[in-house]
Amino acid sequence: MKLSQREKILLSVLGMFALLWLFYSFVFTPQYTALQESKVELEELQKKVEDIELYNDPNGVIQKRYQDNEKTIAAATAKYFPEILQERQIRILDQMLVASTLKGNVLSFSEIAPLLILEKGNEEEKSKKTGKDTKPFVLQELVKQMDQDRVQDEKKPEFTGSGVVETLQTQVEFTGTYSQFTSFIKAVESYPKKILISNIFVANGRAANTNEPIAAGEITGMITLQFYGIPKMHPDQDQDYTTWDIYDVYGRANPYLP
Fold first, then answer.
1. What are the domain boundaries of the chain?
2. Is the pLDDT score of 123 beyond 50?
3. In whole angstroms, what is the distance from residue 231 CA to residue 237 CA?
4. How far, in Å, CA of 139 to CA of 188, rounded?
5. What is the pTM of this model?
6. How many CB atoms lie within 10 A of CB 88?
7. Strands annotated E in 155-217
8. What's the burial of 251, exposed, middle or buried (CB within 10 Å: 0-12/13-18/19+)?
C-alpha cells in the first residue's frame, strides 16, 4: 500500500504526538511529581532548620519567651518553701522563739498533706455557693490592733492550673509577755518564706494545758501556723533550704528543758 505525501505527514505528526504523550506520561510526569515532593520536603526541612536556629539563638524570641516565663514562675514561687521538711520547720520555729524570747511549751505538727491547686474562678464560685469566707486564718483582736495592714496582705495564696502542693499545720503553745508575743508575730511576718497564721488564741491566768499560773504581766495561748511547699523549677533554687547538716546543733540543745 502506497501512502500519499499528505498521509505520510499526518502519520509523522501522529507519531510525534504519541512520542510526546509517552514522554509526558512515563518520563516527565513521574519526574515532575518527584520534584514537587522533593520541593515540599525541602521546604519542611528548611522550616525545621529555621526553627532549630531560632530555638538555639540565645537572643531569639523562643529563648526570650522561655526566660520570661521562667522568671515569672520563679518570682511567683520565691516566697514559698520548695518542699515541706518537718526538721526545717522545727528549726525555723525554734529560731523565732529564741529570737523573741517567747516560751514555746508545746510543738505539734500535722501530717504533711497534699493540697489540690484549684482554679481561681472555681474557688471564688465555691465561696459564693457556701457563703463562707475561704481565707485560711482568723485573727484575734489583739493581733488586729498590732498591725491592721497585715489583714489585707495575708490572704490565702491563689493558684491556677492543676496539681498539688504540700501543706503542714503547726500548733505552738506559748507563754510570755505581750512584747515577746508581738515580737514572735513580727518574726513570722518578716520571714522570707510565707508562713500563714491560721488561728490565734490568747488568754491570761493559767496555761492552756496545765494548772500552773503564769507570772503577772504574761499571757498564754495557742497559735496555729501553716507552711506551704511548692516545687521549684530548678534543683538549685532554695538550695540553702534543701541542703542541711542535721548534725549541727541549732537553737536549744534540749528543747524540753525550761
1. 5-56, 78-242
2. no
3. 10
4. 14
5. 0.55
6. 18
7. 164-177, 195-203
8. middle
